[in-house]
Hints:
Elements: H1 2-27, H2 33-47, H3 60-79, H4 82-95, H5 100-124
Keywords: Membrane, Transmembrane, Transmembrane helix
Membrane topology: Multi-pass membrane protein
Main location: membrane
Amino acid sequence: MKQWLKKFRERAEALEKEACVLVQAYRHPRTPWYARALAVLVLAHTFSPIDLIPDFIPVLGVLDDWIITPLGIALVIRLIPPEVMAEARRQVEENGSASPALRRLGAALVILLWLVVLVWLGRALGLGMKSGGT
């Protein structure tokens, strides 16, 4: 059990480091626009203190963290040129990890996404306010 926990912790640290590398790669001028767009979503999800799917929701809450983050990071890495990723890794080794501002941005994007979903559900279920009434 201790070995499993140690391996899990190492993998989580590696994912966080790769996410920090993506922050650096995002800022690079040779990163394609579509990789940047996806990177914003993946990084917001990864660094947000608020989960997209709360952990108390059985199965889905955990899958959110264990599947979406690693797959999203892997996909963005594939979209960025290897030389840009190498330079970004070098920068992270020299400078360290993500800033608190990135964590706040992630939280804001997750809150915004939930608000959009709630408004959409409200309209779909007919719970929206009717306008122009007399």
